[in-house]
Amino acid sequence: MSRSGYYRWLKHADKQGNDYDDYLLIKNIFFKGKSKLGFRSIKMKLLREYGINMNHKKIIRIMKEYNLITKIRKINPYKMIMNKTQEHKTFENKLDREFKQNTPYKIFCTDITYLKYNRKIAYLSAVKDIASREVVGWNLSMHPTMDLVFNTLESMKSNLLSLQDILIHSDQGFHYTNPNYIKKIKDLKMIQSMSRKGNCIDNAPMESFFGHLKDDIDYKDCGTFEELNLQIKEYIEYYNNKRYQWGIKKMTPVEYRDHLLIEC
User: Fold this and answer.
1) Is 113 helix (H, G, I), strand (E, B) or coil?
2) What CATH superfamily is the domain 107-263?
3) Using CA atoms, how far apart are residues 173 and 197, in angstroms rounded to an integer?
4) Where are the domains of the chain?
5) What are the CA-CA distances from residue 26 to residues 35, 101, 215 (Å)?
6) What is the value of pTM for the model shown?
7) What is the DSSP track for 157-203?
8) DSSP-derived 3-state class of residue 120
C-alpha cells in the first residue's frame, strides 16, 4: 500500500470510529421503527426524544455506510368498486388540491381502505384534518355497509363541538354519493366536495395516511377483529400524539393543531 493510500484508509477508519456511537443510536431507532423510518423521521426522533440535533447529511451517510435501507411502501393497486344508482349524486371538487391549509377544523378529507388479516377483510373509514393532519374520526367494520361511514361521522361528532361550515372532501365512491350520506352531511351543516372520477391524487392526504398506517402496524398478523381494532385505535392515538412529521415543523398533529390555533 502506498503512503497516501494508507493515510486515506486511516482517516476513514478514524471517522468510522467517531461515528460508531451515533450509528448505534440511529440503528436502535431504525429497527424500533421496523426498518421503515427514513432520515427525516430519525432526525426528528433524535431531536425530540434524545435531545440530539444531528445533521441530516450525517444521518444519511451513516445509514448508507451501515446499510440501513428503508423499506419502501408499495402502492396498493386495489380500490373497492361499488355500483351507483340513479339517486346517487356527485359534487364539485371544491378542495381542488389545495392541501396547504393553516386553519384547523376548516377542511377535512375522508376515505375508506381495506385491511386483510387472518384470511378476512376489515374496512377502515377515517377523517383527517388537512391543516393539522390530525385524524378526527374513524371507524373499523367487518362489512362495507353505509354504517361504516355513518359511524365515522358519529366518531367525528363526538370529538368536535361543531362541524358547521367545515368542508369534507372524499372520492366519488358509493358511500359518499349515497343520498342518505348526503343528507347527514347536510344536517351537520357541512360542505361536501369530491375528487374527480378516477383521480386518487385529489385525495392525497388520505392516501398518505392509509399508506403510513399499513407500513407501521403488523395488521396482517392479527387473529381477530377485536385485536385489529385495538391496533388501529392505538396507532391513531400514536399518529395524532407521538408521530413527528417533517412537514408540520417536526411536530405531532395535535401539537401542530394547537400551534395553529394559537396563531389564528
Assistant:
1) strand
2) Ribonuclease H-like superfamily/Ribonuclease H (3.30.420.10)
3) 9
4) 3-65, 107-263
5) 11, 33, 19
6) 0.72
7) HHH-S--TT-EEEE-S-HHHH-HHHHHHHHHTT-EEEEPPTT-GGGG
8) strand
Roughly how many angstroms between the first and final C-alpha of the chain, as a whole number? 65
Question: What grid cell was written down for 64?
Answer: 448508507
Q: State the cell numbers at 212.
A: 403510513
Long-range contacts of 43-46 (CB under 8 A, 24+ apart): 44/244, 44/245, 44/246, 44/250, 45/244
Q: Indicate the residue type of 173.
A: G
The C-alpha cell of 26 is what?
440511529
Cα torsion for 224, 225, 230, 231, to the nearest 10°? Answer: 80
Instruction: Collect all residues with Cβ–Cβ distance below 8 Å to 66 and sequence separation of at least 6.
Output: 23, 27
Return the C-alpha cell found at 170: 372524499
> How far apart are alpha carbons 60 and 38 in whole angstroms?
9
What gap in Å lies between CA 96 and CA 105, rounded to an integer?
Answer: 18
Rounded mean pLDDT for each run of 10 residues along the chain, 264 residues in total: 56 59 85 84 88 89 85 55 68 89 95 94 96 96 95 91 93 92 96 84 88 92 96 96 93 95 82
3-state helix/strand/coil string of 53-93 = CCCHHHHHHHHHHCCCCCCCCCCCCCCCCCCCCCCCCCCCC
Could you tell me the sign of the dihedral formed by the alpha carbons of 182, 96, 86, 207, in that order? negative
Q: What would the grid cell of residue 214 be? A: 399499513
